Amino acid sequence: MRKEDCFYLGTIVSKFSFKGELLIKLDTDEPEAYEKLESVFIALGNNLVPFFIERSSLQKSSLLRVKFEDVNDEADAESLLKSDLYLPLEFLPKLEGNQFYFHEIIGFAIEDKQFGKVGIISGVNDASSQALFEIDRQGTEILIPINDDFIIEVNRETKIIKVDVPEGLIELYL
């Protein structure tokens, strides 16, 4: 399994018991959706290694208490601390309406209410506090903030996202 075919689920943040149990900080708005997993992939070095889950339960709001098969003591658990967990993309819940995952909109066209066809989404920059659409317009990169107030419609069938951005924003790049 490759990281490109997976999504980040969370990070192992601490040991829970002397029997090899671990606490995972989940990166999700719906932690209960991941409470009954059978397995996960753990990033060890440059590889994703499958680990099977004996049992799991939610601790507090977004911490998942997990007992992996063949992780039976503190030393085994210690070796997994701070490791990232991944699941295959097909485990993501389907989103509807104007909600979307960043990976699913690559290749979608962007159309602005006033400007018209802007270009094709080549990526999403989520390294800053405000995520940005990275749009390719015939070799020119245009950045538009991903803001619910700007997004009018996400059409998965036509692969078009219609936006209404502040006047002059697109023209700044041209």
Describe the structure.
The chain is mostly beta strands. It has two domains: 3-91, Elongation Factor Tu (Ef-tu), domain 3 (Beta Barrel); 102-173, SH3 type barrels. It has one helix and twelve strands. It has one helix spanning 74-78, and strands at 6-15, 22-26, 39-44, 47-59, 63-68, 84-88, 109-112, 116-125, 132-137, 140-145, 151-155, 160-163. The chain has a six-stranded antiparallel beta barrel with strand order 1-2-5-4-3-6. β9 and β10 (140-145) form a beta hairpin. The longest helix is centred in the middle third of the chain and has 5 residues, at 74-78. 21% of the residues are buried. The model has no long low-confidence stretch (mean pLDDT 91).
Please describe the topology of this protein.
Blueprint: E1 6-15, E2 22-26, E3 39-44, E4 47-59, E5 63-68, H1 74-78, E6 84-88, E7 109-112, E8 116-125, E9 132-137, E10 140-145, E11 151-155, E12 160-163
Parallel strand pairs: 7-12
Antiparallel strand pairs: 1-2, 1-6, 2-5, 3-4, 3-6, 4-5, 7-8, 8-9, 9-10, 11-12
